[in-house]
Specification:
The protein is an alpha+beta fold. It folds into 3 domains: 187 residues, Threonyl-tRNA Synthetase, Chain A, domain 2, CATH 3.30.980.10; 248 residues, Bira Bifunctional Protein, Domain 2 (BirA Bifunctional Protein, domain 2); 92 residues, 3-Layer(aba) Sandwich (Rossmann fold), CATH 3.40.50.800. Helix content is 35%, strand content 25%. It has an 8-stranded mixed beta sheet with strand order 11-15-16-23-20-19-17-18, sandwiched between helices. Strands 1, 2, 3, 7 and 8 form a 5-stranded antiparallel beta sheet that branches. Strand 24, helix 15 and strand 25 form a beta-alpha-beta unit. Helix 6 crosses helix 14. The radius of gyration is 29 Å and the shape is globular. The relative contact order is 0.08.
């Protein structure tokens, strides 16, 4: 069974071409754009003579199956640019691509191309022909007729520019077997149930109010409680590892980000400067310059290093409306940010410390599978990177040795490093096997130079430190959104906003319920009494819908025995136990940060 996207790419790319032929057959006059294979599927962009809806999918899928049964071979050829223009004379998007390809502006699938060309690559099957570099399967019958499905429709601007026409993008998925397709479709349905935006509303975790603005979430009491617990865990973890915490302002002079280079590199993501007394200020898009100021505040010796400066700091970035997605993509977010100031000799050990800390936090939160990418220089184009060969080689080798020492597999991505240093990116896999990019650990030679940071070495000479940028969770908003979906809203006991709901069977049991509430709160538990005049089963159901770990039912027998009847959100009934027994059980799970409920 193949699950690797690259292994499935020919199959999915072929399915995209088959879909395009079916759409052109059913909707004469259609103009088509590009149709690549993507993670878990494929898509094609079309300018259609009439709007298409999911109601059209069965007809398109049936036509696709007819094409598949035809066993039409995928034939590859090359054509001159002139011939291609003639063959695609009725397809304006293809003519635009042919011109761009011939000039060397881009490749067949939108990627950069090195040089102009006089010919283009073509793939043809049955009646459908397209500009294409492949790969494809040998013939249409190699796309299993029972292992593909059209999924959704979206709008997409041609070549990603709002100045261009908006096309209709039809998404589909294709697999090697019906069982794989069924498993994937189940995961899609499960993902809908776990959607953090849906659960965020239902569990009263956060809102995005129109009156406040898109991409600016407000954390409700339940969400704020869980976030505070998570932040406290982060801070405790950092303090135990020698971090010092600071607070920095939400804005600063524009010159700070000119000095850092961010204004030139990320200016399009920053909000417009504000004029205050004739000086331009910016709301901060990142914390780096502030932490440079913390380091620069005192004279530093090599004996002081490493210095670890941490801050849970809110930053603001100008994201387009189309990119916003609940908590996963916002305009104001809080990073679990830190900058480590080290000597060159300390890079490997500090990198290893950050890696261990990151993995420890992920394991505590229930993540055990990771994908790691090491971004290094392009060895053929070193001129575009700042710093000498020795510094780069030492830093790249230090990252690899750190990963090797923890037996972590990783992919080396040549040419993906930023101009100022190599980096490690870690993606976590959630309960559905989806990958989320969270952690970046960046080695930076340049920012310390830009801010003229120094330390005095053992010889009494001034040296420039190296900075490690690290934010294991990336941002509290995005990571919390991932956690909601990973847990399906059912947070572990230690992180749950409300850990127990006390449910009196009748009004006469309210006094006992509130007495139990006070005793549990005195032990540090987050607990509420449901004193509504509702039936017990209705109260239990409501608590389960809110995914509260424990329901403590109290009636005559429990009041007489000083006990609580414990039910889990899973529906399991643990029966009656003394309050002391419940406290001991729950406290152990909280202290251990366990994923269990008993």
């Amino acid at each position: 069974m193949i699950h690797n996207h690259n292994d499935l790419k020919p199959l999915r790319h072929s399915a995209a071409h088959i879909m395009a032929e079916a759409v052109l057959d059913i909707f004469p006059g259609t103009k088509f754009g590009i149709g690549p294979a993507i993670e878990n599927g494929f898509y094609y962009d079309f300018l259609l003579p009439r709007p298409v809806t999911p109601d059209d999918f069965p007809a398109i899928e049936n036509r696709m199956r007819e094409i598949i049964r035809g066993r039409y071979p995928f034939k590859h050829s090359t054509e001159s640019v002139a011939q291609a223009r003639e063959n695609f004379r009725d397809q304006p998007f293809k003519l635009e691509l042919i011109d761009a390809i011939s000039k060397g502006e881009l490749g067949l699938h939108g990627e950069e191309q090195a040089k102009p060309t006089d010919e283009v690559s073509i793939y043809q099957h049955d009646t459908f022909t397209d500009l294409c570099a492949g790969p494809h399967v040998h013939n249409t019958a190699e796309v299993p007729a029972d292992a593909f499905k059209l999924l959704s429709i979206a709008g997409a601007y041609w070549r990603g520019s709002e100045k261009n026409p908006q096309l209709t993008r039809i998404y589909g998925t294709a697999w090697q077997s019906k069982n794989e397709l069924d498993e994937y479709l189940w995961k899609l349905e499960e993902a809908k149930k776990r959607d953090h935006r849906k659960l965020g509303r239902e569990l009263e975790l956060f809102i995005v109010a129109d009156e406040v603005g898109s991409g600016l979430p407000i954390w409700l009491p339940n969400g704020a409680t869980a976030r505070r617990i998570l932040e406290n865990y982060i801070i405790e973890n950092q303090v135990a590892r020698g971090y010092q915490h600071v607070y920095s302002p939400h804005m600063g002079k524009k010159q700070l980000w000119i000095t850092s280079g961010h204004w030139d590199l990320y200016g399009d993501k920053m909000y417009a400067p504000m004029d205050i007394d004739g000086v331009e200020y910016l709301v901060k898009p990142m914390n780096c310059p502030m932490h440079m100021m913390v380091y620069k505040n005192a004279l530093r010796s090599y004996k002081d290093l490493p210095i670890r400066i941490a801050e849970n700091a809110t930053v603001y970035r100008r994201e387009s409306s189309g990119e916003l997605a609940g908590l996963l993509r916002v305009r104001g977010f809080t990073q679990d940010d830190a900058h480590l100031f080290v000597t060159p000799e300390q890079i490997e050990q500090e990198f290893l410390n950050v890696l261990d800390q990151t993995l420890d936090q992920f394991h505590t939160l229930g993540f055990s599978e990771f994908e790691s990418w090491v971004s290094v220089r392009d060895p053929k184009n070193k001129a575009k990177y700042l710093g000498d060969d020795e510094s780069w080689n030492n830093a790249e080798d230090a990252i690899k040795r750190a990963l090797d020492s923890r037996d972590m597999e990783y992919i080396v991505a040549e040419g993906e490093a930023k101009f100022y240093g190599p980096a490690l990116d870690i993606m976590i896999k959630d309960a559905l096997g989806r990958k989320w990019q969270c952690t970046t650990i960046q080695v930076d030679f340049q920012l310390p130079r830009r801010f003229e940071l120094e330390y005095i070495d053992a010889e009494g000479k001034a040296q420039t430190p190296v900075v490690l940028h690290r934010a294991p969770f990336g941002s509290m908003e995005r990571f919390f959104g991932v956690l909601i979906e990973h847990y399906a809203g059912a947070f572990p006991v230690w992180l749950a906003p409300v850990q127990a709901k006390i449910i009196p069977i009748a009004d006469r049991h309210n006094e006992y319920a509130h007495a139990m509430e006070k005793k549990l709160q005195a032990q540090g538990f987050r607990v509420q009494v449901d004193a509504r005049s509702e039936r017990m089963n209705a109260k239990i159901r409501d608590a389960q819908l809110m995914k509260i770990p424990y329901m403590l039912v109290v009636g005559d027998k429990e009041a007489e025995a000083g006990a609580v009847s414990v039910r889990l959100r899973t529906g399991e009934d643990l029966k009656a136990m003394s309050l002391e027994q419940f406290i001991a059980m729950a406290k152990k799970l909280v202290d251990e940060k366990s994923m269990e409920l008993k």
